[in-house]
# Entry
Amino acid sequence: MNIDQLIKKIELSFESLLGLSIHGLLGIIVGLIIFSLLLFLIKYERKIDRSFNFQADNLSEVGNPIEANINLARSLIEMQEIQKAKDCLNQVETEKDLTEEQRNKIEILKGRMKEKEDG
# Structure
């Protein structure tokens, strides 16, 4: 395909899209403006922050924060992240309103951590 034919096809497509024909310097300027706006919109779309910001303060939104930390510690133990699991359990142990069931879960998890560290 010849470059002249390609340009002619683009001109015809643009003409059928807008319903008017713009040739010469005015056509180049209008095309550059449209292209610049398109690039600006793409760049603007990428600037939107879509990241998830996890903070320990937000645990109340997903349920009981004590249970969430206990479950997190259990998962960390399974992934061999013993120190992080200790940190979670230490944070939970400082809570004053622990139920007996939660205390038992913490003790069981501490036993699992000790087993993982020893063997």
The CA atoms of residues 56 and 109 lie 20 Å apart.
